[in-house]
Amino acid sequence: MLNCRDKILLENEWILAEILPGDGGRISRIFDKKHSCELIWSNPRTEDVPRYYGCNYDDLSASGIEEAFPTVQPCKIGDADLPFFGEIWTIPWRYTQHDREIILTCESPVWTARMEKRISLCENCLNITYKIVNTGTKEFGFLFGFHPSLCIYESSRLYVPEGSYDMYMAEELEKGKTERFRWPFYHGRDLSDAGRYNTGFFNFLMHPVREGCYGIVHEQEKTGLKIEFDKGLFRCLSLWPIYGGWRGHACIMTEAFTTWPVNLEEAIRKGRANILTPSEHMETTVKYTVGKADGKE
């Protein structure tokens, strides 16, 4: 049986990636070997704490790159009680390794789905191809999301698609309310300045997504990370710049989801959930490019 601390490495001359198949199949590191820089943030205070099915994501996630399926917010659908952040982020994934590709698979315990995650390297890019298969006899609704947490340094800058966002959480915002703002300035503050000496905690959402990319640049470290995805599938982009304002963390948590709201029961009721019929599958690739100078080509 896989131990949550068992790790497998995938590397070439540009990138070292660390995967923990026994710990929800999460990617715990993307390391830029050319510039000796960690790009993916993991929570050091929870990395040795075992995760278990149904636990609280906010309390026990160790971050890195994780996936949510078939819901984000906990909900009850029929006789199924679906937990916070879904079913697959806490369970062990089986894996096989072939040179520069690792294939991880798991079965969703309640939802009749098989998950596959193919991770491969091509020069300075790490590609993750996800495949979700309906293995049951009835169609089901779902939402799917990927959740990379990004390291920040003194001179880091965040790049996201231009446009207007809904702010859900900030010091200036009364609890329970939202506020529309134009990126990157919120109440006179440049949110693209992600330097680690900033303070505060923000959460904002773009729906629908206008461009299928975002990224971060570490100017002093002379590197960065660009993340590209299918904007037709992942229609929502949520960003959580955390500058010590939530539990003392310093990172940027990011989330791209297939639909909004991220409570599956609500998404089904509003006709916004993704649907898979028996034997049908969904497949998509997310690309991580290391060393980009900014969030665009």
Walk me through the structure.
The strands form six sheets. Strands 5, 13, 15, 16, 19, 20, 23 and 24 form an eight-stranded antiparallel sheet that branches. An eight-stranded antiparallel sheet has the order 8-9-10-11-26-22-21-14, with no helix packed on it. The protein has a four-stranded antiparallel sheet with strand order 1-2-3-4, with no helix packed on it. It is globular and about 55 Å long. It has helices at 57-60, 264-269, and strands at 8-11, 15-20, 26-32, 37-38, 65-68, 75-77, 80-82, 94-98, 101-107, 113-122, 125-134, 140-142, 145-150, 156-159, 164-169, 179-182, 185-186, 189-190, 200-201, 203-206, 213-218, 223-228, 236-243, 250-257, 274-276, 281-290. Helices cover 3% and strands 45% of the residues. With 297 residues, the protein is mainly beta.
Radius of gyration: 18 Å
The residue-averaged pLDDT reads 94
Spans of at least 5 consecutive residues whose pLDDT stays below 50 are: none
Strand content: over 45%
The termini sit apart by 43 Å
Specify the overall morphology: globular
Number of strands: 26
The helix-and-strand class reads mainly beta
Helices and strands, in order, run as EEEEHEEEEEEEEEEEEEEEEEEEEHEE
Question: What helical percentage do the residues reach?
Answer: under 10%
Can you summarize the main beta sheet?
A: 8 strands, antiparallel
The number of helical segments is 2
How would you summarize this macromolecular structure in one to three sentences?
The protein contains two helices and 26 strands.
